Amino acid sequence: MESAHLLARLNPDGSVDASFHPQLDLWVIALAVQADGKIVIGGYFTLVNGAIRRSIARLNATAAWMPPFSPRPAWTRGGTS
User: What residue numbers bound the domain in which 35 lies?
Assistant: First the structure.
């Protein structure tokens, strides 16, 4: 089974990031991005990159070019309140 069908990361232009390829044995059904950019996944898998990880695992963002991901918008305020 090819892992790109299970979990993929997209580049800013929408193409698949070829440098991100975790090896999973089954499906990911939940995903969360932590403040430090690491990705927590949950699902039906039991192996992640050859290590036993039953249903939950944390992945490191390994691409050097990739800035930390923030799921929250950055708000700025000008003037007086």
Answer: 3-59
Domains contained in the chain, number: 1
The encoded tokens of residue 45 equal 């898998």
Q: Which two tokens stand for residue 33?
A: 């991005």
Q: Is residue 44 part of a domain?
A: yes
> Exposed, middle or buried: residue 62 (CB in 10 Å: 0-12, 13-18, 19+)?
exposed
Predicted local confidence at residue 62, as pLDDT: 56
| pLDDT value, residue 77 | 61
Q: What does the alpha-carbon distance between residue 61 and residue 59 come to, in Å, rounded to a whole number?
A: 7
Report how far apart, in Å, the C-alpha atoms of 36 and of each of 1, 5, 40, 49, 77 are. 30, 26, 11, 21, 25
